[in-house]
Amino acid sequence: MQTRPAPAPVRRSVPGRIRVISGVTAAALALLFAALAAGAWTVGDGLRVIGRDAGPQVVATAGLYLALSDMDAQVADALIMGDSYDRERQRAVDRYERRRSEANQALLKAFELSGDNPAERRTVQSVLDGLGRYERLAAQALLLDERSPHPPGRPPDDVVLLHRQATDLMRLVLLPQAYNLTLENGTIVRQTYDDKALTVPLLRGAVVLAGLLALGCLLVLQVYLARRFRRVLGPALLAATVATAVALLFGSNVLAQDEQALREAKTAGFDSVLTLARARAISNSMQGDQSRYLLDQARADTYEHMYLDKSLSVLYVEAGNLETYHAKVTGGSGEGFRGLLGPELVGRSGKAAMDAYRRFQAADMDFRARAADGQVREAVEARLRPVGEAFDAYDRSLVALSEQHENAFERAIGRGESTLDGLWRLLPSAIGVIGLLVVAGVWPRLKEYR
């Protein structure tokens, strides 16, 4: 008796193949969305650390150097005023107190940022201890100077000796520690940026590869169903393919935009703000060196050389002495200068900063000429009036320039967070919609074999 071959194994292989292709497609889609989620989380972490957490805190701790240097500058200013500038002396003392409060606040932020890092915590504690010693020495010098009236210029020897101890503690201990603290804290931002700059492009590449794999699987599934069932492409699977392509393009574009936002926030924002904060602090210390130049005749040459070294770090030109530096800065165009301000002197605000710095150096040149001629009272007047006014204008120009970079920083972070929010809103919807469309395209074909 002849028996007919059973067609069941062949029929059962069709739904099996459909399930296999559908499973591979689902796995590819899951890989795509996992890569998108990983990329979004990674870039979001970078935006949070650089834009909302460590970045602003590092900039705040950079103000520690400015506050400390200005404290010492105000003490020197108060000591050279003698008994002829009562109102100005009180303003200097009041500003000293404000800067002391700012320094304490910056140290608290630095302590918070240090986390569980014992080395950074020891540095913060060391600065706090040193600041306490400096405040005692400065208070003794100011009190003794007040009790020893003298004309503008050099105070009595015992006041000068106390000031030497205080300014040496500030210059040799506190300011280097404050600068190192900012560098250590800035490492958090740099490491975060370097990590994200390496990881985000890799994840974006993974998104593209996973997306192309998912699109390929969807196309294979549609072609197989169309050929096996002799039908045109199913609308549900076609919609799923289009939705996947949209998710791929949108997701990879968001990651690319956020990568660019991170780059702008770090290079055009954070780096410049930190550089300008350091330039302001060093410039403020330069102003203190002017007063110390009059205050301590035994160290006048030392303070003049220190002023030159700091000027070269702010804006560098080839100059072996302060006279040559003055001539080149006040007579030059400002183009091609290096140093902290060199790369920042672009645009209208950069030109304004350069012009203000040039006027400050010109005022310093006149101030030193008066001091060299023995016109001590006139030199003090020049230091407190034209030099001080020129410095204030220069400092305001740096603040304006820094605010531009701060705005660029905030815009970049805000833009990155905004586009990232759109991606996070897309992901759940895309997963649900594409999953339902795939099921709607495959389930009716499987039902035909039941």
From TrEMBL:
Protein's UniProt keywords contain Transmembrane helix: yes
Species this chain originates from: Nonomuraea aridisoli
UniProt keyword annotations, A-Z: Membrane, Transmembrane, Transmembrane helix
Protein name as catalogued: Secreted protein
Bilayer-spanning residue ranges: 20-43, 206-226, 232-256, 423-443
